[in-house]
Design brief:
By secondary structure, the protein is of the alpha+beta class. Helices cover about 45% and strands about 20% of the residues. It starts with a strand and ends with a helix.
Length: about 230
């Protein structure tokens, strides 16, 4: 492994260079008569360089490997299995001000996407409905009607993206039914729903929070200047 590596922390989103004092890598090779031959189990640990975070990420992968007599070293094939152990699964970390039920559904949808795409899609649809109701105050009997009501509330590009996902195969067919109905979808379709959820959480909750923070700071600065002048 290189002496340093550039990566994004899955906890805080910080992009930075991780030096060798903040990562470690180990390989455990085993055979013991198993039918697959020599295996290599590799683990990697990264610690976020952001002092406000300093969380660690733990990953593992499994690959076939064999001894190369001419080079006097092991030759390892491409990984045949990967695990993201900490944090579990490939989901993004969002701030705690995003409603907890929405984050819970989003994370579970990510974790089970490959194992059960239809369950993942069901959770993602529920997450979408939860955001529409919480953020926009739109509540109707069917998710499809709630999405239609957003047309006059969001920008055209955002609504087109939501409608585009709604139009895909079985996802679209089941937008008009109970959100808890299990939908027959493949992992790629479930991934599109998850991608939509991530985009909307960022555009609705994160961007609103950042705007409010900037506006509050402007008010504070203006007040400080006003107080300073009145004190002259």
């Amino acid at each position: 492994m290189a002496n340093s590596i550039n990566r994004r922390c899955p906890f805080c989103g910080h992009h930075g260079t991780i030096t060798e004092d903040r990562f470690s890598h180990a390989i455990h090779r085993f055979e013991h008569g198993n039918k697959h031959g020599m295996q290599a189990f590799e683990t990697s640990v990264f610690v976020c360089p952001n002092e406000a975070c300093r969380e660690y990420t733990l990953m593992a992968e499994l690959a076939d490997t064999k001894w190369n007599g001419s080079t006097r070293e092991y030759a390892t094939a491409d990984p045949k299995a990967n695990w993201e152990l900490i944090p579990p699964g490939a989901y993004k970390q969002f701030p705690s001000y995003v409603p907890a039920p929405i984050l819970a559904d989003y994370r579970e949808a990510c974790l089970i996407r490959e194992l059960s795409p239809k369950a993942s899609a069901t959770l993602a649809r529920r997450c979408l409905q939860g955001m529409i109701r919480d953020f926009w105050g739109v509540a109707k009997s069917r998710l499809v009607d709630e999405i239609d009501a957003l047309r006059v509330k969001v920008d055209a590009l955002t609504w087109d993206a939501i409608d585009a996902v709604r139009s895909i195969g079985n996802i679209g067919a089941h937008m008009e039914k109970d959100i808890n109905l299990v939908v027959e979808v493949d992992p790629d379709e479930a991934g599109l729903l998850i991608g939509l959820i991530e985009t909307l959480i960022t555009e609705w909750y994160v961007n609103r929070h950042e705007r409010e923070r900037r506006m509050a700071r402007l008010v504070d600065v203006a007040k400080e200047k006003k107080d300073a002048k009145s004190g002259i």
